[in-house]
Fold this sequence. Notes:
Blueprint: E1 3-6, E2 9-12, E3 17-23, E4 32-38, E5 45-50, E6 57-59, E7 67-72, E8 77-82, E9 91-98, E10 111-112, E11 116-121
Parallel strand pairs: 2-11
Antiparallel strand pairs: 1-3, 3-8, 4-5, 4-9, 5-6, 7-8, 9-10, 9-11
Amino acid sequence: xxxxxxxxxxxxxxxxxxxxxxxSGRTFRLYSMxxxxxxxxxxxxxxxxxxxxxxxQYYADSVKGRFAISRDNAKNTVFLQMNSLKxxxxxxxxxxxxxxxxxxxxxxxxxxxxxxxxxxSS
Length: 122
């Protein structure tokens, strides 16, 4: 599975961005998906995750109520809608796919996208 992330950019605090991650192949529906981010000097942290069948979502406390994860299995794509962005959301965002359970940690991820930079100015 190859993952291609897009949608990052520069936005002012309070603004919105929508990230997309499109997977190759025909088995996208078999993977749970997650979005991670990595700020300079920090490790990867989970932002949001979604189950294979879209019946469960997980959000980090820092983004609850502001971010929303969704998926379109027909288009092999997972989305991350980010609203009310804050400067502390600045990071490289990565999508990840996992066959086993929810992708809540890097250890569970089997495949990674290339990352897309989100910069939030104050």
